Amino acid sequence: MEKFNGLKLLVSVIVILALGSAGGLVTAPQIKTWYVLLQKPVFNPPNYLFAPVWTFLYLSMGVSFYLLWNSKKSNYKQYAISAFVIQFILNIAWSFIFFYLHQVGWALAEILMMWLFILLTIVYAFKVKKWAAWLLIPYLAWVSFATILNAAIYILN
């Protein structure tokens, strides 16, 4: 069993929350201007739901990353961490593509790549630290929903 490292946990959670919030800085001004004008499907959640959901998901991602980072050396540890970093970069990029650039189609293509890297992260994480993988399941579920929502908005607009 790995020794608990509070500093690594704190760094992991704070960095994930801070970088994840960068997407929110781009998103927030667009909600009441550009986004409100888009045709959205009936299953589009209310806007107030997104911030608490993403906060929970970023916290879970931060703990998951900590568990991977703090885990003992294994053949899959670097694969899991690399896949995590790639999916997280894609996560941040999606907000810029969708909300800042207003490129709904490109955002759809990008979120599909993000979904694949989240799945890959989970597969590798299961081989390193099962809890790190389990913590990412709600994230995969939410991004699955977000992918369907992105596709619906693309079709409707």
Automatic annotation (TrEMBL):
One of its GO terms (cellular component) is membrane. GO terms for biological process: tetrapyrrole metabolic process. Gene3D superfamilies: TspO/MBR protein. It is found in: Membrane. Pfam families: TspO_MBR. It comes from the Bacteria. Its main location: membrane. InterPro entries: TspO/MBR-related_sf, TspO_MBR. Keywords: Membrane, Transmembrane, Transmembrane helix. The chain crosses the membrane at residues 48-69, 81-101, 107-126, 133-156. It is a multi-pass membrane protein. Belongs to the TspO/BZRP family. PANTHER family: PERIPHERAL-TYPE BENZODIAZEPINE RECEPTOR, TRANSLOCATOR PROTEIN. This is TspO/MBR related protein. It comes from Hydrotalea sandarakina.
